[in-house]
Structures are given as structure tokens and as C-alpha cells.
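thought: fold this chain, then report.
action: predict
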Amino acid sequence: MEQGVIDTDTLAGGIELQSTVESGQSYLWNREDGRMYETEGATGDDGWYWTTVRREGTPHVIRVRQREARLEWESTVEAERDVRRLLRLGDDLDEIRAAAPDDEVVQDAYDAYWGMRLVRDPPFGSLISFICSAQMRVSRIHGMQRALREAYGETVEFDGATYRAYPTPSALAETSEDALRDLGLGYRAPYVQRTAEMVATGEAHPDEATGLDYEAARESLTRFVGVGQKVADCVLLFSLDFLEAVPLDTWIRSTIEEYYPECDRGNYADTSRAIRSALGGEYAGYAQTYLFHYLRTGGDAE
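observation:
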């Protein structure tokens, strides 16, 4: 077993691990105790969280927990670089907050969950999980990804336990719509199967959005079955480094209605452009994520 410690005092703005992985931006992390997404708005838990990464196609487990000013990790491989990448530990939260508007609701959200970072999930897993997100609670979306792991993920032995990696595109492409429906995916089943097929055959890959201008990148992702502009924005923000992206989900549309009515332009593209500007431009996706978590949980961190 490989192990390591990252001093959180060395991170600009620190980190709040529980909020980072349980705020509805990632469904690819799991709690070791199985209680992921059980308590909305909770912060400060020191339990282990785990996910899997691939090295030359081979899956490996990474386990992380936060204890006071220490971020501890354990893995089947040397994984500090992976931890820093997946949890965006290089982001300067102080600089990002300074770019946000001085609006009371935004600043209250930052105060409530200070240290929460965006994630940088693997593109394929992020794409599939947000295809599954339509009209679903965060706990239910996470449950779907857990079911996909259990049914189609490779086994990984680590520290005396058996884990399941997130399925490969080929594994999901080779299954059937009926089998995916049986896992609870409902009408999303054909979207998942066909999108996985597109990636597995090389027809398209979410990585191809990298390096494009923002709106061209969003358009690139809408090629995938079941991916509209909102899902595309989620993948851009939580996987592909487009920190200006603001997914217009139900919570953010309610935020616009109550706090930023002038940004409602009657269509997705123009409203997106307006709210990105209102929330600080380059780092608008950070402000959006804090607002989403703060308002979804009733405005209180536990």
C-alpha cells in the first residue's frame, strides 16, 4: 500500500473534503462507510472517501480522508498527483473568491462551505453520471453510478477488500438497454448505452472538447445521446477545466429568478452568457457550485 499526507495549510484557501465530494458535482466518489449523500449540507467529516483511476488501462483504488490540517491518502499506487488533480488542489480559492460578485447570497454561500473545491472527474464517468442526472435527486444519481460499478466494473483488491472500478466505455456499450433499465436507469438506459458505444468505437470522445472555445466545447458534447446544454455544461465544469461554465439546472434557474432576474434572456445560450458575467466570468462555475450547494441544502452548513 502507498500512503501520503498533504498539508492543507499549504493549499490556497484550504479544502473542505466532504463538501467537495458530496455537493452534487461528482458521483464517482464513495464513502467507505456507505453513507454517501445521506446528510445534506454536512461538512467536516473525517471518514474515508474512495474512487478509482486508471493507469495504462489498469484500475487502481485511491482513498482519501481529511483530519484537521491533513489530507491523508492511501492507494494501490503512488497517488499524490492523482489526488491533487482530482480534487483541484492547485486552484487558488482566495483568488477565485475575489473574482466573485460581492452579492450577499454569493458571499454567504462561500462562508458556509469555504474550502469546497470543484472536482476534476474522468471525462467518461462524468459524462455518463450527468446523463443519468435528469430529474433526479443527487443521492439517486449516485446510486445509479454505484449500480453501474457493481454490475460492470472490474474488481480491484485493496487493503483486504474488493472494490469495483467505474465501467469502461466498452463494458457499457456491450450491455443492453433492458439490463440498464433493470439497474434503475429508466429512460436514460438507451442514452447511456449509445453514448458508451460512441466512445468505445471512437466515434466521439468527451476529451475532444478540450482546447475549444467555451461555446464550441459545449456544442461538441451535445453530440452524445441524451446530452443537452445543461449536461454538457456540467461535464465542462466538473471534468474538462472550463471553470466559467454555469449549468442552468433547476436550482440555478431559481437563483436567477430571485437574485438575478435581469440575466433571464428567455433561452439557454443567452441566459448562460448573462449569468456567467454576473457571477464573475472566468470563475463563474465556482460561484455557481457554491450557490447550488448552499441553496439546495437550505443555506446552512451542519
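thought: worth noting. The two ends are 34 Å apart (CA to CA).
final: C-alpha cells above.
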